[in-house]
Amino acid sequence: MQENWEKFYLEIDGVENELELLCSEHDQFLIRMHDQVYTAKLIPTSDREIWQLSINGKRHKLFINPQSKHIFIQSEGWNFECKIQDEKSKKLLDFVKQSSKMEEVHYVAPMPGLLMKFLKQEGEKINLGEPLAILSAMKMENELRSNVTGTIKKIHIPEQTSVEKGALLVTLMSE
């Protein structure tokens, strides 16, 4: 029987990776990325927007924002924003990106919590991976990092405000 691997593009914190998926069972699949093959399984939780992703037996929490179609991965205290698209969607998006040099990027809260403070102000430049804000959640202060290099266009939430998961925090103009 011939294996039918499907090609996808996974962008994690602004870095694009090519990967291939092969569904092996109802809730299990194989991921091939950087010449490595990983066994993965999606595990639902009571919240439709939160899933557990097990990769080679190690669990990661996924927050799925249905409005923006972004996925946030929480693993070992780190938060990663991800976008995944199939090959046809990627080609279309690449074409659209080439037609405009700058793009608005909406940064949303990866989890509910208290937005403690912004580390950058409107009009300031920010680099990929640079700290953007501090979000207190589950009695921990989480440093939210920029997923693009660009400029802070608009801050949508005042500091010391409680936010829900998926709340729009900042609009950035990417370079």
Short description:
The chain has 175 residues and is mainly beta. The protein is built from 1 helix and 16 strands. It folds into 2 domains: 6-87, Glycoprotein, Type 4 Pilin (2-Layer Sandwich), CATH 3.30.700; 100-174, RNA polymerase II/Efflux pump adaptor protein, barrel-sandwich hybrid domain (OB fold (Dihydrolipoamide Acetyltransferase, E2P), Beta Barrel).
Number of strands: 16
Spatially, the strands of the biggest sheet line up as 1-2-3-4-5-6-7-8
Average pLDDT level:
83
Helix content: under 10%
How many helix segments?
1
CATH architectural label of the largest domain: 2-Layer Sandwich
Low-confidence stretches: none
Task: Name the CATH class of the largest domain.
Answer: Alpha Beta
Query: Tell me about the biggest sheet?
Result: 8 strands, antiparallel, barrel
Q: Quick one: overall form? A: globular
Helix and strand pattern: EEEEEEEEHEEEEEEEE
Number of domains: 2
Rg, alpha carbons: 17 Å
CATH fold title of the largest domain: Glycoprotein, Type 4 Pilin
The proportion of residues in beta strands is: over 45%
What structural class do the secondary elements suggest?
A: mainly beta
Topology readout:
Elements: E1 6-12, E2 15-23, E3 28-33, E4 36-44, E5 50-55, E6 58-65, E7 70-75, E8 78-86, H1 87-99, E9 103-108, E10 113-118, E11 125-126, E12 131-137, E13 140-145, E14 150-155, E15 161-163, E16 168-174
Antiparallel strand pairs: 1-2, 1-8, 2-3, 3-4, 4-5, 5-6, 6-7, 7-8, 9-16, 10-12, 10-15, 11-14, 12-13, 14-16
Note down, in words, how this protein is organized.
The structure is a single chain. By secondary structure, the protein is mainly beta. The protein folds into two domains: 6-87, Glycoprotein, Type 4 Pilin, CATH 3.30.700.30; 100-174, OB fold (Dihydrolipoamide Acetyltransferase, E2P), CATH 2.40.50. Helices cover 7% and strands 59% of the residues. It has one helix at residues 87-99; strands at residues 6-12, 15-23, 28-33, 36-44, 50-55, 58-65, 70-75, 78-86, 103-108, 113-118, 125-126, 131-137, 140-145, 150-155, 161-163, 168-174. The chain has an eight-stranded antiparallel β-barrel. Strands 9-16-14-11 form a four-stranded antiparallel sheet, with no helix packed on it. A hairpin with a 2-residue loop joins strand 12 (131-137) and strand 13 (140-145). The longest helix has 13 residues, at 87-99. The protein is globular.
